[in-house]
């Protein structure tokens, strides 16, 4: 509406073409931060949902529990090995295909 009104004033010679360009520039400078705020709001909203899901996962009770007064398990030369691991949330889209790796005790794999 403002742009049409400004164009009308330019046509009636109450404003110059430069005033019209200035009006458009002001509108763009006002719109860009508002657009950023919308994007920022969506990012925060998604992050809160993800955090809620993570907290629910942390509250899960483990299926396997140690017996009361269990002795610590000391392993020497222990390792975890994955051989030909295939995984997907559905059969049409596999995330892992025939993955093989070995992680020895005391090492970290990222």
From TrEMBL:
It comes from the Eukaryota. GO terms for molecular function: ABC-type heme transporter activity; ATP binding; heme binding. Keywords: Membrane, Transmembrane, Transmembrane helix. It is found in: Membrane. One of its GO terms (cellular component) is vacuolar membrane. PROSITE patterns: ABC_TM1F (PS50929). Its main location: membrane. PANTHER family: ATP-BINDING CASSETTE SUB-FAMILY B, ATP-BINDING CASSETTE SUB-FAMILY B MEMBER 6. This is ABC transmembrane type-1 domain-containing protein. It comes from Cuerna arida.
